[in-house]
Amino acid sequence: MAVTSPKEETEVLIVGSGPVGLASAIELGHRGIRCTVVEQHERVGQNPRAKTTNVRTREHLRRWGIADALRKASTLPAEYPSNIVFATSMKGPVLARIENAFYCWPERNDLYSESGQWVPQYLIEEVMRGHLAGFSNVSFHFNQRLSAVKQCEHAVKATLVHTETGEESTIASKYLIGADGGRSTVRKLIGATMTGRPAEYRNFNVVLRAPKLAAMHPLGPAIQYWLVNDEAPCLFGPMDGVDRWYFMATKIDKSLDPESVDVCDMIRRSTGIDFEMEIVGSVDPWLAHSLIADRYSDRRLFLAGDACHLHVPFGGFGMNMGIADGVDLGWKMAATLQGWGGPHLLATYELERRPVHLRVLNEANLNYVKVANQFIKRVWMPRGPKATRCGKRWERRLWKRRHANSKRWASFSATAMKTHRPSFPMGRSLPRSILKTMCPLLIRVA
Ligand SMILES: Cc1cc2nc3c(=O)[nH]c(=O)nc-3n(C[C@H](O)[C@H](O)[C@H](O)COP(=O)(O)OP(=O)(O)OC[C@H]3O[C@@H](n4cnc5c(N)ncnc54)[C@H](O)[C@@H]3O)c2cc1C
User: Fold this and answer.
1) Cβ of 146 less than 6 Å from ligand 1
2) Span from the CA of 51 to the centroid of ligand 1 (angstroms)
3) Ligand 1 atom at minimal distance to the Cα of residue 205
């Protein structure tokens, strides 16, 4: 993997070295296309946003020959259960448990060839970059920002600015992929606009080291603990099998500045456990936009990933959908460049991907309606001094149904996460009637 100044000419210029830029480069690289990836930052030390790598993404990694490398890169063992636990605190009581929610259990399944994996986004990127190091036809250039672009009938000419020296250079290519994230420059350059629902709430993530915590709670292993309490509702879980955890505060008060929050105090209140912790890095605030571009391309320029669709991050969709964009665009671009794809193949990229994106946006929005904050209603409190008759009644019913339903839960969850249909990766929206049977507590308060 060369890290030099970009050459003056390439076949495909990829802007952005996030997971989508990397997926595009791998797909094109495997097909013998010369590509150049330019990235405005060093792309190191990013906060671990995505953690859910779904079965479809892992199937792409398998085809590229790096599924095992990702499995080995994770400090969470493959057999660590991808359970989701709903509880009022890390001391309990448990409200509901979904087993093997993301199909991460490493056993043979006729529906897919690879199990999902709970692994931080920076590790996937590391594995993908490492794989690209073996490609002589793919080069990387960090600290290079795309600033302008011109295109004619046969080529694209891009202007790059070195972010440290300010030096300008130009590079010509046959096509350009804008995998440059939510604030995409390429999107602006082609005049596309995002429509949909901009974020209404603030949210933040933080990573902490807490080596003793795993032994201090009785909830059993899981990848997500939804802590439903009125102290500080959150999503909490392990980042690795050793000592790192993430804490995600959702739908916080608009007047609250995430940077000024006493995070340790908030985590202790939310978990209900007083434990030793050290915050790693800084607070990572994020917004839950639900937006889609009005068009994905302009002649030789194409958008992929967050550049053309921004999801609410509930369901593990953004990176996984974006990697699939890179794969779809990659093979179609290679086929067109190699002359066997036909003149209309690239136009099918948007035709095929947009319905998928719209469906997933919708599903992610439905998931965001039901974050921990929404589950809290005093009327539902099942235990403790604030317990209500209604809460106690539902808890009894829930416990009775839990075991009977655990298998259906897992299957629902995989459907909702769109992971189990190899021919049509979207799955189906969950019928409300099923959801109602499976978990009365959640549906009634959502
Ligand atoms: C809290 C949270 C949790 C999430 N969890 C999940 C999850 O579990 N599963 C999942 O699938 N997704 C998840 N996501 C979404 C996922 O993180 C994103 O969808 C994914 O990072 C998008 O990848 P990308 O490559 O399109 O864009 P990015 O990761 O944003 O990368 C774009 C790159 O382009 C570079 N760039 C931008 N402009 C220029 C320019 N002009 N010139 C050169 N370079 C440029 C940027 O520096 C950046 O490195 C989550 C998101 C959040 C906020």
Assistant:
1) yes
2) 12
3) 1
What pLDDT was estimated at residue 232? 87
Please choose from 46, 49, 149, 236 the residue to mutate so as to test ligand 1's pocket, defined by most ligand atoms within 8 A of CB. Answer: 49
The set of residues, in sequence order, having a beta carbon less than 8 Å from that of 269 and lying 6+ positions away, is: 231, 232
Signed CA dihedral, 256, 258, 264, 269: sign only: positive
Indicate the residue type of 260: S
* Cβ–ligand 1 contact at 178 (below 6 Å): no
* Most informative mutation of 119, 190, 306, 363 for ligand 1 (most atoms within 8 A of CB): 306
**How big is the chain, counted in residues?**
446
Which residues of the chain have a pLDDT value below 70? 1-5, 45-46, 370-446
Q: Name the CATH superfamily housing domain 2-69+119-196+290-363.
A: FAD/NAD(P)-binding domain (3.50.50.60)
Under CATH, domain 202-287 is a member of which superfamily?
A: D-Amino Acid Oxidase, subunit A, domain 2 (3.30.9.10)
260-298: buried (b, 16+ CB within 10 Å) or exposed (e) per residue?
ebebbebbbbbbbbebebeebeebbbbebbbbbbeebbb
Type of residue found at 325: D
